[in-house]
Specification:
By secondary structure, the protein is an alpha+beta fold. The protein has two domains: 4-125, Serine Threonine Protein Phosphatase 5, Tetratricopeptide repeat, CATH 1.25.40; 129-417, Neuraminidase. It has seven helices and 27 strands. β5 and β6 (174-180) form a beta hairpin.
């Protein structure tokens, strides 16, 4: 479940490198001159910008759209435009922090005093929140995990590894072991994981990986591979997160390809879902308790889909709130829980919904600006406790190679009460 910033890190870094050593004035004048070399993906980025601007007046979370537009304009080197969009976004006070360490496309703006003031103001506005604590530690340091799931019937957790391309299992009382061993089935990097409550088997989604082969995988309770299905589409694309609906359907997000698919478990076919607007880097996905409502998270918020009628609309976050960029997304007692990265800094959130699931009526920050959200991705609910991975270390892995071995550390699983 790679967060958006990790997905596009290689793209956006190229836009920042040409500004090193330049003065504040020269940097902000770049978009008015012809001295900046356009990034290789400029045509695609401009097409994305056009799509975003076409729905600017229609999306309820205007701040999320402004923040994404600012980063895309900054990527193109149009820094005055990016700064103006950031100012408009910050004025809405929805929780965004334009931190260049988490949004690399904003790094060229670090020389600008107005941008530095915006960043300082936002950091003063949002104080740390610490409600979680470490519940379990996985000793292995080179897993680079993404997906986490739990079998509620026995408390057995499953966690995938992007680097080792395997799945481990553990309980909170101790004992970590391989559920699916490395190299056993020639797997791609493991992303989202979900336990089937009917037969306790496990489904997983994979990144494309070096072999450009994103798949849905199905394992029995002993870790034996039962089924594998390659996703449709052309590169770049990957299968990120997934959720099961009964014994017939699986819904999965394709973050890089900007798709959401419905997979039919009987016919073994993928069908692309259509929503009221385009999706931009879809990631987290979950179902209401009765399985009638599907919730899909992307960079602009959360789309609510009534699976009985196929009606779709964005969940309204209301003023001073945002549902932008949620990695792990979960349903709990008419609330959405989310491990959120789209605000520019990581946080763990809960949003209470209206009875029809159309709008947020209350929100609560569960963890923010602490060591327990240094690089989180996903979690799992067990009873009234939410467990989440605190330190995936994903920024220390590039092209499946460890960047700095000295930064490797055991994986911590934190827990926060939902009572």
């Amino acid at each position: 479940m790679r967060a958006y910033n990790a997905i596009i890190c290689a793209i956006v870094l190229c836009s920042g490198s040409s500004f090193a050593g330049q003065s504040e004035a020269s940097v902000l004048q770049q978009d008015a001159g012809a001295s900046v070399t356009a990034p290789a993906d400029a045509e695609n980025v401009r097409a994305e910008i056009r799509s975003l601007e076409a729905i600017l007046s229609k999306v309820p979370d205007r701040s999320a759209l402004l923040f994404l537009l600012a980063r895309r304009y900054a990527h193109l080197g149009e820094l005055q435009k990016a700064l103006a969009l950031l100012k408009e976004c910050m004025a809405l006070d929805a929780g965004f922090v334009p931190d260049p360490s988490n949004s690399p496309s904003l790094r060229p703006l670090e020389l600008n005093s107005e941008f530095r003031d915006l960043l300082a103001q936002s950091r003063r506005r949002y104080s740390p929140v610490h409600k979680a604590h470490v519940a379990f530690t996985v000793p292995a340091k080179d897993l680079f995990p993404e997906g986490l799931a739990v079998d509620a019937s026995n408390g057995l957790f499953y966690m995938g590894s992007m680097h080792r391309k395997k799945v481990i299992k553990f309980t909170l009382t101790g004992g970590v072991s391989d559920y699916v061993r490395q190299d056993l089935y020639d797997l791609s990097p493991i992303g989202g994981i979900h336990v089937d409550p009917v037969d306790h088997s496990v489904w997983a989604a994979t990144d494309a990986g070096a072999k450009k082969r994103p798949e849905l995988l199905h394992f029995d309770t002993q870790g034996k591979l039962l089924e594998r299905y390659a996703s449709p589409g052309t590169m770049p694309h990957d299968l990120n997160d997934l959720v099961l609906r009964g014994t017939r359907e699986i819904f999965t997000t394709d973050t890089e390809g900007h798709h959401v698919y419905r997979f039919d478990r009987l016919s073994h076919t993928f069908a692309e879902m259509k929503f009221w607007r385009p999706v931009f880097y879809p990631n987290g996905i979950t179902l209401s308790r009765d399985c009638d409502l599907l919730f899909v998270a992307d960079m602009l918020g959360v789309i609510r889909v009534d699976l009985r009628t196929n009606e779709s609309a964005d969940v309204d976050p209301r003023a001073h709130n945002t549902l932008s960029g949620i990695d792990g997304l979960y349903w709990h007692k008419n609330e959405l829980l989310g491990v959120q990265y789209g605000t520019g800094e990581y946080r763990v959130m809960r949003w209470k919904l209206s009875p029809d699931g159309r709008k947020v009526i209350a929100s609560e920050t569960l963890e923010y600006d602490t060591d327990l959200v240094s690089d989180p991705t996903t979690g799992a609910i067990l009873g009234d406790q939410f467990y989440f991975i605190t330190n995936t270390g994903i920024y220390n892995l590039e092209d499946d190679k460890i960047v700095d071995p000295a930064k490797l550390e055991p994986v911590h699983i934190a827990v926060v009460s939902l009572k």
